Amino acid sequence: MAITTFAAIYIGSYEVSLKIFELSGKKKIREIDHIRTRLELGRDTFHSGVIGSDLVDELCMILADFARIMQGYKVKDYRAFAGNVVGEAKNMLFILDQITTQTGLHVATLSNSERRFLTYKGVAARPGFDKMTKDSAAVIDVGGGSLQITLFINGRVVTTQHLAIGTMRLMEMLSDIEHNVLHLENQLEELVDKELAVFLAQYMHPGEEIKNVILMGDYIAEIMRKISRNGEEMHEVEATRFINFLKKLDKKSVEEISEILNLSNEKDILVLPSVILYAKLTQAMHAQTIWFPDVDTSDGIVYDYAQTHKIVRTSHDFDEDILSAAKNMSMRYMSYSQHIDALTDMSVLLFDAMKKIHGMGKRERLLLKVAAMLHDCGKYISLANSAICAYQIIRATEIIGLTHLEREMVASVVLYNSTPLDPYEELADRMDQHSYLVVAKLAAILRVANAMDRSHRQKFKNVRVVLKNKQLVITIETMSDIALEKGLLAAKSNAFESIFGIKPVMKEKRVYT
Fold first, then answer.
1. How far is CA 350 from CA 36, 233, 510, in A?
2. Residue 364 counted as domain residue
3. Residue 15 lies in domain
4. I need a labelling partner for 59 at 20 to 30 A (CA). Which of 44, 162, 246, 373 fits?
5. How far is residue 388's CA from residue 39's CA, in Å, rounded to a whole number?
6. Residue in 199, 208, 196 with CA at minimum distance from that of residue 135
7. What is the rounded distance in angstroms from the CA atom of residue 177 to the CA atom of residue 187?
8. Do 108 and 239 belong to one domain?
9. How far apart (Å, rounded) are the C-alpha atoms in residues 66 and 48?
């Protein structure tokens, strides 16, 4: 294929960046330029919730310069995104409109889930990622507004947790006292310790060790260069060497740390919380190795673009990450059982048999599997109100690989598995019409599948599903009495028929021993 020049723009809490890439069939992805401009939008958003007009004007000027640079490189396509620093601002719509009007660039906002997954994609594409996560690993992405930790055990995702202790947010928390204390690092350490203690108590057992820490964030490249004996770039180091070096920076001023790391800005206040976070995180994990993949959101943006346009292929199974996280979440809320496996298999069987009827694809099939795995998690909170509890749990839990909207959709499928479907008008503020239709269809399929194993006894074997005229014929082999399942299926058939125009019918094939 011909070489395509692509640009990735990302607007973060304290920096606006532009990366130019060449994409081709042979060399795949090659970075040819990287421009970073400091702009502390987070100070406004995290403090007042509104980005001031002066900063918006400065942002537009930076992006206009980026647009000219892109023209110089003859960029054929681009993607421009802004993180939560813009997404959480009360004047977000006006900011995006001014950017388009003044620069011609179209910027979309990313939720935390979307941005972290883009970065994760960029990391997972790096050689050695699957080897690093084969045993136990933590992928830690430290940003200005927050950090995210994804734990791997035996190569599978266990959990993803989002902590609102990014470097700039920490400094903003202490903005009122930073000039009145002698050692600001003490207050920073207290804040970090408090948040990490909750995470460790919930997700790591006493004495548990994470073999490898995959660390992303600012200043890590400079830290690794200083640790390197010859001052060259280094991407992997023993955790003890990494921690010992960071300990040498303890109690030092911003200016002293900046000088040691050879930073161009000797008054870069964010280096202080960064160093503290890296030290606390790596110590808490009891890691053996620190791996720095040198990846940021822009790398994830280009990788996602290249993957979508079939320029690159990945060996990493991102869908498996989602399913693994869902399974562990189900186990955490003590709802995982043989019934969950049976329900998931039955749901997929119905989905596959109805392809010509429902018109949905692979992504919706994945969402159905996640919903089936999580449909009982609300019983951990309340047996009487399990549906609404499950809905709230799923909405509030990061599942790596699912967007914010997809999480809302999965939660809604679980909710409407056991409660009547609300009209679209009542959900219009949460999802668009297409997403609503997907939720309605998946919930209808899940309801029928659930009715087939309502007793949680897995009475069926060799289930076969066939479309015949206006009926979805479900033929099952069983040795058990299935009067309960037949009755429940009949009760749920009207709602199913109203959505798909076909009626589910169960046919029994008696098996004798």
1. 50, 53, 21
2. yes
3. 4-113
4. 162
5. 42
6. 208
7. 10
8. no
9. 28
Encoding tokens for residue 375? 């449909």
DSSP 8-state secondary structure symbol assigned to residue 370: H
Domain containing 456 — which CATH number?
Answer: 1.10.3210.10
Q: How far is CA 435 from the centre of its chain?
A: 19
- Measured from the Cβ of residue 31, the count of other Cβ atoms closer than 10 Å reads 13
Q: The tokens of 19 are what?
A: 């990366």
CA distance 65 to 59: 10
Q: Are residues 333 and 211 in the same domain?
A: no
Please state the φ and ψ torsions of residue 429, each to the nearest 5 degrees.
-80, -5
**Residues 353 and 487 occupy one common structural domain:** yes
Angle between helices 433-452 and 404-416 (to 10 degrees): 40
**Structural tokens at position 399:** 């599942």
Chain centroid to CA 427: how far?
Answer: 23
Question: 234 and 360, same structural domain?
Answer: no
Distances (CA, A) of 477 to 340, 341, 506: 20, 18, 11
Q: Is residue 279 part of a domain?
A: yes
Query: Domain of 259: which CATH number?
Result: 3.30.420.150
Please name every residue paired with 477 in a beta bridge, in sequence order, or none if there are none: 461, 509
Q: How far is CA 20 from the centre of its chain?
A: 25
For residue 148, which of 137, 159, 156, 158 has the smallest C-alpha distance?
Answer: 159
Same domain, yes or no, for 221 and 161?
A: yes
pLDDT tens across the length of the chain (513 residues) = 577 899 999 999 989 999 999 998 776 899 999 999 999 998 888 888 999 999 999 999 999 999 999 999 999 999 999 998 999 999 999 999 999 999 999 999 998 888 889 999 999 988 889 889 988 999 999 998 899 999 998 888 999 999 989 998 888 888 766 655 556 788 888 889 998 999 888 888 777 789 999 999 999 999 999 998 776 677 899 999 999 999 999 888 889 999 999 988 878 889 999 999 999 999 999 999 999 998 999 999 999 999 888 888 877 889 999 999 999 999 999 888 888 888 999 999 999 999 999 999 999 999 999 999 999 999 999 999 999 999 999 999 989 899 999 999 999 999 999 999 999 999 999 999 999 999 999 999 999 998 887 655 556 677 888 888 889 988 887 766 667 777 778 777 888 999 999 998 888 776 555
**How many structural domains are present in the chain?**
3
How many C-beta neighbours within 10 Å does residue 76 have? 13
Give the domain-ending residue among 78, 113, 148: 113
Distance CA 94, CA 91 (A): 5
